[in-house]
Amino acid sequence: MSELSVNHLLGIKYLNKDDIKLIFETADHFKEVINRPIKKVPSLRDITIANLFFENSTRTKLSFELAEKRLSADVINFSASQSSVKKGETLIDTVNNILSMKVDMVVMRHPNPGASVFLSQHVNARIINAGDGAHEHPTQALLDSYSIRERLGEVKGKKVVIVGDILHSRVALSNIFALQLQGAEVMVCGPKTLLPKYIDKLGVKVETNLLKALNWCDVANMLRVQNERMEVNYFPSTREYTQQYGVTMDVLNSLKKEITIMHPGPINRGVEITSEVADSNQAIILNQVENGVAVRMAIIYLLASKIKQ
After folding, report:
1. Residue ranges of the binding site for carbamoyl phosphate
2. What fold, for 12-137+290-307?
3. Residue positions forming the annotated binding site
4. Could you check whether 12-137+290-307 and 138-288 share the same CATH topology?
5. Per-residue pLDDT tens for 40-66?
6. Which fold has domain 138-288?
7. Alpha carbon distance 96, 82 (integer Å)
8. Distance of alpha carbon 93 from alpha carbon 103, whole angstroms
9. In the chain, domain spans
10. Residue (of 3, 10, 264) closest to 127 by Cα position
11. Is the pTM of this model over 0.90?
């Protein structure tokens, strides 16, 4: 298979196993490229990509921008906080105005779940979902799986626990879909108040005891507590959360085996993991960042090749 089964990357739930395999094989090639002295390839010299971020983002936005530039695409950056959206312009109008500048692809982060799907139905460009509300964040899940594959050889058969604020996390949902599609076992772990009510319908194990979860898993993906999405308190205090769900070196050393620690960032050091854990050999957090560029290059390249047809 040499092309994706989809025309947009809207969510992991629209992909199949072969799509993920193709993205990873393409990312392997680009990972080699970004480790060369000259890190650019002319693949997308005639493609224009608009990055539309209606929510703040540092790492995802930088990662996409770097991926686009490594592929030699023309890049337009659009930040909603400085735009006509503030004056009441609709999403469709905003995007159509940008598309009238002859843009081929739109990378969009938006606070409303389903915004990228809505956009794909109304505008004539390839859409990549860079996070929609607390719904999906497909490129993060793909780079997470790619990083597990790189560290442990394959994703199939591995036991992965996602720890923390599952309720407000688009990373958790996309990761669950991606890991299950590749044949991994998935568990979620956190305080009951931060686990969604529908979680058991997703075919994942649920555990509220951190030590039990860590002793079960091969990989622990630590999520931060998303205070900015919370209107009410979901747990008594940060200190209490850290005591129950924070990973320290003492916790890791008490386990029966060595596990791999991941984090989608930004890290609240000293809350979900200590600095010592984040900077240890068991953590692959910086590998995730590097892999994010290669995986996003692969996705952009594969979707762009469908424009040229």
Report:
1. 59-60, 109, 137, 140, 265-266
2. Rossmann fold (3.40.50)
3. 59-60, 87, 109, 137, 140, 170, 224, 265-266
4. yes
5. 999 999 999 999 998 888 889 999 999
6. Rossmann fold (3.40.50)
7. 17
8. 14
9. 12-137+290-307, 138-288
10. 10
11. yes
